């Protein structure tokens, strides 16, 4: 038996196929399996250029970033190695030489 995805609207697990559509009996939401696959791809963390980022990648900072609670600044062009992708607003955890551990937003980096 194939495993159908949960409903994207109400997250119900009781979805079923009706012709070419998937249907949720709980909220009556209908969607195509292609939409479900596209939504899964949209969950990927992307850099400023739209490239998919993965844990272990190396990125370059594209904007001067002030470090909260400090007078130091992460300069443009700073290379950050071995990033970790996490959930949240700041979706990259990393260590930056001379600054230490910090979290970055993926919109301020590009994959190198």
TrEMBL record:
Specify the domain of life of the species encoding this protein.
Answer: Bacteria
Q: Where is the Protein YjdM N-terminal domain?
A: 3-32
- The residues covered by the Protein YjdM C-terminal domain are 46-111
Q: Which Gene3D superfamilies match?
A: 2.20.25.10, SH3 Domains
Please provide an example of a Pfam family that matches this protein in its UniProt record: YjdM
Give the protein family. Belongs to the YjdM family.
NCBIfam families given in the database record: phnA (TIGR00686)
Q: What is this protein called?
A: Protein YjdM
Organism from which the protein derives: Aporhodopirellula rubra
